[in-house]
Amino acid sequence: MALGQRGAIVGFGRFLSNSKVTVERLIEGWGQGASLSCEGRHILAIQDLSEVNLGTRRADRRGLSPISHGNAHGLLLHAMLAVDADDGGLLGLVSGRIWTRPGVAQVPHRQRALIDRESHRWLSTAQAAKTVLAKAASVTVIADRESDIYAEWALLPEPGFHLLTRATKDRRTTQGKLSSATLQLAGETLATLQAKPGQAERQIRLLARFGAVSILRPAHGGHEGLPKSVPLSLVEVSEVDPAPGVEPILWRLLTTHPVRDAQSAWRIVGWYRRRWIIEQLFRTLKQQGLQLEDSQVEDAERLVKLTAIAANAACVTLQLVQARDGRSRQAADIVFSAPEIQALEALAPELEGKTQAQKNPHPRRSLAWAAWIIAKLGGWDGYPSSRPPGPITFKNGLQHFKSIAQGWSLRLV
What we know:
Strand content: 15-25%
Number of strands: 12
Distance between the termini: 23 Å
CATH superfamily of the largest domain: Transposase Inhibitor Protein From Tn5, Chain A, domain 1
Low-confidence stretches: 1-7
CATH architecture of the largest domain: Alpha-Beta Complex
Largest sheet: 10 strands, mixed
Shape: globular
CATH topology of the largest domain: Transposase Inhibitor Protein From Tn5, Chain A, domain 1
Mean pLDDT: 87
Structural class: alpha+beta
Helix content: 25-40%
Number of domains: 3
């Protein structure tokens, strides 16, 4: 990102205007870190869509199209994150798509081929993950209701590559409806439901049931040629005794993973709840730090490229936030290049104080060690008793560090 100086801003503007810098190549670059760090792990490949509202006026739409009902104009960002299934550690962006709609579609949705629909992004992004995450021990693609597309269930799964999606509706199955499926009880558990805009964090009690189902091919919508049914596992999660006035939780989770007992049912629920990480990415991108929606870049093409760069920066910021407490087992090289790590090593002694409380407490070259250094550059005082550094501190620290690292790389030229 531009660092604030006039020369840097001009240079960054030229970079965005360069025809050789395409959004496709920028998105291809997303997966490099995840590809290197996924080896031997079970990866949760979490994907979702976010609208980027760029607050345009009628006289200054910048080539952007409507993104929702009303007068909002902007971009659409579809992203996939790689997350370690065991510890929830964010390993990086995998793939995705960024676009602005060309206008209102003239052909009705059901009459368009799947590849011509916006919803095809759920399949194409998951397909791209097969290449980026090829070294993973296994992959589970996780998404919310919008990705519950029959073609996805029929075409994507293969050995070691699974799907886990919340059902969008009460699907037809060979046994009737999902809601009437015969299920086994998995028991109850206490859980914390994360805060959302307009909804505070709350403690809830969840009950889970599980069983096998076979969903039927829809009668309409261009699904001809696909299998008549697909066998899946269903885990149904409901909230017990919800508070008055609160919409209770009811998740019908479909997955290609076999679910044969209560333990595996609750494991599916735990994996699905990791989906919250991608919500944090979008918040970091748009509100908590990078404030992409305040951008004044002048045209849609450059805004699309800027969004690709900013999404990667938001991912790095979120990785540092995750690592700050030292519980992460990740190494710094999942985020930083070898020259950047050398620059971090040179900076570390300069940022430490004389007392033990002012020393970097984390193992050298760990991501937690790097996060401590970046936070110090962003203005954090480094004391364990102080409030932990947040996205804005890490964003500021990363901007400062990138300028230092650039100078460090030129020292021997």
